[in-house]
Amino acid sequence: MSLKLYFHPLTSFCWKVLIALYENDTPFEPHIVDLGDERSSTEFKRIWPIGKFPVLHDKARNVTVPESSIIIEYLSHHYPGGTELVPKDTDLALQARQWIASTIFTCTSRCKRSSAIDYVRPVRLMRKASSQVLLDTAYSMVDREMAAKTWAIGDKFTMADCAAAPALFYANKVLLLGEHYRNVARYLDRLLARPSFARTVQEAQPYFALFPQ
Questions:
Q1: Pick from 103, 137, 152, 194: most CB atoms within 10 A?
Q2: Is there a single domain that holds both residue 112 and residue 189?
C-alpha cells in the first residue's frame, strides 16, 4: 500500500485528514503514534523530526507530507476521488481555504485552550471566560454563514467541511451550541451523518476515555 498516515485518533487535525481519505475511499495504511511511548515516538520522528501529526508518507512517490490542509491538497492532486475536496474553481478554493484559516481555526484553537485550562489544570476563570467569548464569536460567524447553505462553501462537500467537522464536534464539548446557534447545530448534525465523518468518530470511540472532559 502506497500511503501511510501517521496520526492520533483523538486530534482534530488528524480527523480532518481521515475524513478526506474516507470520503474518497482512498486506500491507506493507518499508523497510530503515541508520543508518550519512546519506541513509537522515535519511529515517528525518523519520518518527521518535528514530531507533529498528521503526516502522510507516500511510498510510491517517496514523499512525506505534513500538515492536514497540505495533505488534503496533496491527495486531491495525486489521488483524486469522486468528491472534489479542493474545488477546481479558484474562487471556491480560496473560500474553502479562508474558511479553514479563519473561522474553523478559531473554533479549534479556542477549544484546545478551554480544554487545557478547564480540565487539565485548575480553572482560571478570567482566561476561561475570554476563551469562551472567542468561541462564541466563532459560533456566531458560522451560524450566519450556514443560514442558507448545506455545506461550508455551498452545495458540495469540500476540504472546508473536513476541517469543520472535528472543530465543531470538539467545540461543542467545550461550549454547547444549545438553542442559540441552530444553523451551526444543524450543520454539525449533517456532518455527523456524513459516512466519512461517522466512521472517523466511531473509530475514535475507544480512545474517548483519554479526552480531558
A1: 152
A2: yes
